[in-house]
Amino acid sequence: MTARLIRGRLLSFKDAPKSIDDTGSYTYEEDGAVLMENGHIVAAGGYDAVKSQAPADAIETDHRPHLIMPGFIDAHIHFPQMQVIGSYAAALLEWLNNYTFVEEQRFSDAAHAARIATAYFDELVRHGTTTAVTYCSVHKTSADAFFTESHRRNMRMVAGKVMMDRNAPPGLLDTPQTGYDDTKAVIADWHGNGRQLVAITPRFAITSTPEQMEMAGTLMREHPDLHMQTHLSENKAEIEFTKELYPWAKDYTDVYERYGMLGPTSLFGHSIHLSEREADVMSETGSVAVFCPTSNLFLGSGLFDLKTLDERSKPVRIAVATDVGGGTNYSMLRTIDEGYKVLQLQGQRMTPLESFYRITLGNARALCLEDKIGALEPGREADIVVLNAAATPAMALKMEAVTKLTEELFLLQTLGDDRAIVETYIAGEPAKSTL
Ligand code: GUN
Ligand code: ZN
């Protein structure tokens, strides 16, 4: 594949920003460039230095004055919920039963799953998201449709066939054995196939029997390198129902703990209403709490106490995600904007540097994928987003008053959406302009 050189202002994080203007946490190049070849970043830095390393036939694209960053990472999203987004419901369990469990049944149909998979990746690319940790439906067909399309586009995805064997319509149930067998088959077909990664995906404690939870724990022991994703402590009624179903459990987290499901590659969507004991166990096991601000607000689930989890003596690792279709937007820019407001309501602050760290390197670290994605550094995969902070008339006007990088980032966060994404590069190839 021909090498590509892209020119613009480069921003890439090295570590979590510790203050509003922590210049040591990132690298910034006013006249920068990234050289990409064979899906990877070969060089990134000042334009002249990078240009001198480029082969003579490299294709050069000038994105000045736009900002070039690592592609955005969404740590929790449901691909079969593209037609659930924006469904009118009071709270989680009603929303699941009245809309989500109805819609997801359609994914037993391979043609439907394939159509939605195409639309899904189009939407991610349009919004600058280059990696998304995704729930498919219970049907193996949905996972096959998902990975077929992701592989075709050469995208770095993490996804799993949902395991669920109770408390949902019959068309949406597997069994402990078929859930295990189908997950095994998805792993055999897709894990490590190109850029695809499979996650073990028990939906949540309510929709799995103890027998299925055992099977999920078994799968994790058999495949310790895989991610595990599920939901935890999102909603008060959900927590109460879980306690009824698992009367022996100390708390909700204890259910997952007993089946051996906590650990550094385990992602727990929402994790809003955690006790000190639960937060301690999450911390000790390196488990990740996934903050889904638009979803938590839309479903009235609660306010994620990010700063307390992050700054307690035993900190909990945190990722950020859209949770579409409980979440209301595919954009990680819209997501950090709503996340900022969730913190505001609790008297907490999230700096612009922290927001952009979280949706790039921060999420890559939370997924234990920082050796592959999340930074503009040689050797990393060339998943890149190009941002225009003056993409709309309102943004352009505000941009006139912007004097520094952190203000530009905050403008992108506050007013930005898919219109601010000029280009999305997937493994070194332009993917948005070619949609
Ligand atoms: N808990 C179990 N399933 C789901 C889901 O699909 N969305 C959300 N937000 N919470 C869940
Ligand atoms: Zn979810």
TrEMBL record:
<dbReference type="GO" id="GO:0008892">
    <property type="term" value="F:guanine deaminase activity"/>
</dbReference>
<dbReference type="InterPro" id="IPR006680">
    <property type="entry name" value="Amidohydro-rel"/>
</dbReference>
<protein>
    <recommendedName>
        <fullName>Guanine deaminase</fullName>
        <ecNumber>3.5.4.3</ecNumber>
    </recommendedName>
</protein>
<comment type="pathway">
    <text>Purine metabolism; guanine degradation; xanthine from guanine: step 1/1.</text>
</comment>
<comment type="similarity">
    <text>Belongs to the metallo-dependent hydrolases superfamily. ATZ/TRZ family.</text>
</comment>
<feature type="domain" description="Amidohydrolase-related">
    <location>
        <begin position="68"/>
        <end position="429"/>
    </location>
</feature>
<dbReference type="InterPro" id="IPR011059">
    <property type="entry name" value="Metal-dep_hydrolase_composite"/>
</dbReference>
<dbReference type="InterPro" id="IPR051607">
    <property type="entry name" value="Metallo-dep_hydrolases"/>
</dbReference>
<dbReference type="InterPro" id="IPR032466">
    <property type="entry name" value="Metal_Hydrolase"/>
</dbReference>
<keyword id="KW-0479">Metal-binding</keyword>
<comment type="function">
    <text>Catalyzes the hydrolytic deamination of guanine, producing xanthine and ammonia.</text>
</comment>
<dbReference type="InterPro" id="IPR014311">
    <property type="entry name" value="Guanine_deaminase"/>
</dbReference>
<keyword id="KW-0378">Hydrolase</keyword>
<dbReference type="Pfam" id="PF01979">
    <property type="entry name" value="Amidohydro_1"/>
</dbReference>
<keyword id="KW-0862">Zinc</keyword>
